[in-house]
Amino acid sequence: MLPLFCRAGLLLSLFLLSVSTLAQRVSSAPEQDPFPRREAQAPTRGLGNYRSHTYDDSTHTLRIRTTTGGTLRIRPWAEGVVRVEQFPAGQPVEDIPSVSVVQKPQSLAPSCKGEGWDGGPVQGQPYVGARLRNSPAALHWYLDCPGEVVIQKSPLRIGYQRCPVALTTEASSGFQLLTTGGGPAGLGVSFQLTPEEHLYGTGSRALPLNRRGRKLMLYNEAHYGYQNGEPTLNLTLPTVLSSRGYMLFFDTPAPGTLDLGATEKNILEYRGEGLDNLAYFIITGGSYAEILARYTALTGKQPLPPRWALGLIQSRFGYKTEQEMYQTAARMRRAGFPLDALVLDLYWFGGTTRQGDFRWQPEQFPNPKRMLRRLDSAGVKTVLITEPYVMRTSRNDSLVRSQNLVGRDRNGRPYTVESFWAGPATLLDMFRPPARQWLWQQYDRLKQDGVGGWWSDLGEPENQPADMHYDLGPTRRIHNAYGQAWAGILAEGYARQYPQERLFNLARSGWAGLQRLSVFPWSGDVSRSWSGLQAQVPIMLSMGLGGVGYMHSDAGGFAGSTIDPELYTRWLQMASLGPIMRPHGVVAPEPYAYPEPHQSIVRRYAHLRYELLPYLYTLAWENAQTGTPLARPMHYGETVLDPQSLEMLLAEEEQNPAIIQAARPVPTWNWNTEASSSWGTQRLLARQERLHRANNTAALTNVNDQFLLGPNLLVAPVVQPGQRRRNVVLPPGRWIDFYSHLTFSGNQTVGVAAPLAQLPLLVRAGAFLPTGPYVPTTAQYRTDTLRVRFYADESAPESSFTLYDDDGKTTLTAQNPAYHLLSFTGKVGRGRTTVQVRQSGNGYPGAPAHRTITLEIPRVTAAPAGATLNGQALAATDWQFEPTSQTLRLRFTQAEKPVTVTIQGLQLATAVVTNAPPEPLTLEAPSSSTFSRSTELRYSVHTPGAYSLLIRTAQGQVVRTFSLPAQPAGPHTLTWNGADTSGNPVPSGVYTAEMHGQHQRLVVLRN
């Protein structure tokens, strides 16, 4: 292989409740498909071969003239980032506007010379560090070490090399899409793929992580009640991240397709509709983290959220009165659930026919300012829904039409969308300055009422006829950019009028770069079903690999009125350990609506989330700094170079304790580092490649039902009904069970208990996990008391974690860096364990003058020989060993000066578990658990072999046996027609499908 980076109830009631409602689809207006599929492949015409080239000293741009008269323009943009532009013959070579890119081209530092460079540029004088070498077959452009752009002349193809392996190479330099009459219809480009290459990203899709072998649309779509397998959802992204160490970013919001080896298995092809020119970026790096850091620098980093956004946000369709808001908040508090925000759906302005009013419904909300103030004083923010549609029944209909603030027909008249589900409406033109100004005025007025956050719904837009026109063009041209333009109104308004306040915008659509606009997206109107739940992990992770770190779902499921306490419990367990926790639905989305034990289980995990706020908030800071998502796939790899790894980069003469200490006085979240010499640079590159290989094994590269929450927690949600044990795939290193503290070796799959009350959760050996006392609202969050678990382990002799702390609400700027960093460094070995805590940063108003820290070390088998604090013996009252829980606790105070805790003779129970074999198969949710004629029974085989599936009555009697032949690994289905062994239909009732000790509940209802 080439180097990769050099969960029952009454039967009838449940059946009736299983009939889905259409939620917000209450209109009888005619329906149409607003997203027609376009499958026909257009003919193409190539852009030609190399004819000549020029180099522009002032812009550091290389131009390639082709044999057809076209032009390719290539420009290094930043370290590891190259922009390529295509201009067919007859098209002017000019700057191409972008809705995504905010970074200006960077001046690169001096770099290494490429092997074979002859000492001087071919023509002109490139910027410092760049060198161009011409040969009969190719141009070699040496950029940042070890990057190199190679332009093959015939056939003309552009590639990028690193170390010196070709990361990506075009299969064709570009081509025009042609109409049947031969005229231009768009542009495209293709790239070669290696057989072992995996492809990730492409936005929100209910598909497996690895997108290789699929053909995908780039056109944002709303699919009500979607389930697992839906290929296109509300937020597509024109980015593809490769396991080989590069990302392709097609910088246009035009409709398009990504053919990721579907038509030709080793060709990646992009086609953009209606393009006269095309720009794309090649973004490379030594890790996924580095690539995402460069991509989010290019398109904008996500600002820190207000801290309340990481709390429990409760929503439903919908709270209809002021009194209902008070009652919901009070019931959440009485039931012992935390609460940080309530979301108001469309009833706040009067319901579906009043979309576009932007005014409180006075009968139901008589005093909104008082309501908002009262809720806020209890630590509960209020989030308001708004839509881009203005109903013809709206109070603002005449205004927006007369002032031309809406989309128009071809004659320039306001376009009425007759087929919108709520009734005839117009769509605001988010690209027209007066419309943007008018909409911001509505938001600003509501903001002054005390609104805490915003919910931007239907922003694809959900129904947008193709013959509508906007300031920037017709529907299809601007469709993907619409949600982005809408989000920009809020972001720009806050930056201008509330620059010290952090914005929260709950939106479901956008485009590349939406993260910089403080968008916290959700995955759309998901079915309230197990299939809907199963789609959420890959959706979240794929968005994270596209630079969007806060993708989440309507926890519990939105579309449908089925009440399934087990499904709700499993969904909320997962959401409590995700980026955003927001229960939402048509019926019973609040946790207090569920019976015991489900209510207590959800409460436990909601409390755990609030205890983990110091960790979660630090992950939010990391995301704002580097673009690394909060939730990460199993193969993501490290984002932190710990102190031990720094030592590996020093030459022998530099391996001196004083030098090592000086090199890392405060460990930080910086996953990148600079070596002290060329020798160290090569060592760093080799280490990056080694780590990437270790994490990109076949077992890790397409795991769709578990994720890493930050660097230290492995979350394995239960996404099958009735499942009480599940397989967990472990990355390299040791992993410690969060509940039992059992230790597992990495690089294997283990079977882990998953009772209803417990979601499998593991901690990386060596990790620091900072927690705080439970508070019912983040308004009471403080860091003056912290509990930090240190999972000391001999396999991790050195480890670190840096905790971030600020006031949780003020926008951070370079001119106002008001925060604290608490860096924890641990060393284990030779009978002595040390933990050092250092504080840095300028602090912030209200920051604690000192912090009381309880250091907890689990898996300790005996009391240590002694413990000191900065060399002085710890008082007996400040440390305690609990033999029952095998936990050592040490308490100390941390202020400005560093604190070092030393433990002598720490004895750890680090023996690894050897008897946790994985389940050989997983019996999955059936196609329908309640049926009259037949259902598909689904299962996935992990260990090939012959298995049997039994159908039992509620009393345990076997009525049907399926003896299956040898089964290969992979997914399988069989159909049960509701008949017994003799072929006679079984009577109505409850049955169980049983396979290898696993069970699925079935309900047969005869007519």
UniProtKB/TrEMBL annotation:
<feature type="domain" description="Glycoside hydrolase family 31 TIM barrel">
    <location>
        <begin position="303"/>
        <end position="619"/>
    </location>
</feature>
<dbReference type="InterPro" id="IPR000322">
    <property type="entry name" value="Glyco_hydro_31_TIM"/>
</dbReference>
<dbReference type="InterPro" id="IPR025965">
    <property type="entry name" value="FlgD/Vpr_Ig-like"/>
</dbReference>
<comment type="similarity">
    <text>Belongs to the glycosyl hydrolase 31 family.</text>
</comment>
<dbReference type="GO" id="GO:0004553">
    <property type="term" value="F:hydrolase activity, hydrolyzing O-glycosyl compounds"/>
</dbReference>
<feature type="signal peptide">
    <location>
        <begin position="1"/>
        <end position="23"/>
    </location>
</feature>
<feature type="domain" description="FlgD/Vpr Ig-like">
    <location>
        <begin position="947"/>
        <end position="997"/>
    </location>
</feature>
<dbReference type="InterPro" id="IPR013780">
    <property type="entry name" value="Glyco_hydro_b"/>
</dbReference>
<dbReference type="Pfam" id="PF13860">
    <property type="entry name" value="FlgD_ig"/>
</dbReference>
<dbReference type="InterPro" id="IPR048395">
    <property type="entry name" value="Glyco_hydro_31_C"/>
</dbReference>
<dbReference type="GO" id="GO:0005975">
    <property type="term" value="P:carbohydrate metabolic process"/>
</dbReference>
<dbReference type="Pfam" id="PF21365">
    <property type="entry name" value="Glyco_hydro_31_3rd"/>
</dbReference>
<feature type="domain" description="Glycoside hydrolase family 31 N-terminal">
    <location>
        <begin position="72"/>
        <end position="259"/>
    </location>
</feature>
<keyword id="KW-0732">Signal</keyword>
<dbReference type="InterPro" id="IPR025887">
    <property type="entry name" value="Glyco_hydro_31_N_dom"/>
</dbReference>
<dbReference type="InterPro" id="IPR011013">
    <property type="entry name" value="Gal_mutarotase_sf_dom"/>
</dbReference>
<dbReference type="InterPro" id="IPR033403">
    <property type="entry name" value="DUF5110"/>
</dbReference>
<dbReference type="Pfam" id="PF13802">
    <property type="entry name" value="Gal_mutarotas_2"/>
</dbReference>
<dbReference type="GO" id="GO:0030246">
    <property type="term" value="F:carbohydrate binding"/>
</dbReference>
<protein>
    <submittedName>
        <fullName>DUF5110 domain-containing protein</fullName>
    </submittedName>
</protein>
<dbReference type="Pfam" id="PF01055">
    <property type="entry name" value="Glyco_hydro_31_2nd"/>
</dbReference>
<keyword id="KW-0378">Hydrolase</keyword>
<keyword id="KW-0326">Glycosidase</keyword>
<dbReference type="InterPro" id="IPR051816">
    <property type="entry name" value="Glycosyl_Hydrolase_31"/>
</dbReference>
<feature type="domain" description="DUF5110">
    <location>
        <begin position="786"/>
        <end position="857"/>
    </location>
</feature>
<dbReference type="InterPro" id="IPR017853">
    <property type="entry name" value="GH"/>
</dbReference>
<dbReference type="Pfam" id="PF17137">
    <property type="entry name" value="DUF5110"/>
</dbReference>
<feature type="region of interest" description="Disordered">
    <location>
        <begin position="27"/>
        <end position="53"/>
    </location>
</feature>
<feature type="domain" description="Glycosyl hydrolase family 31 C-terminal">
    <location>
        <begin position="697"/>
        <end position="767"/>
    </location>
</feature>
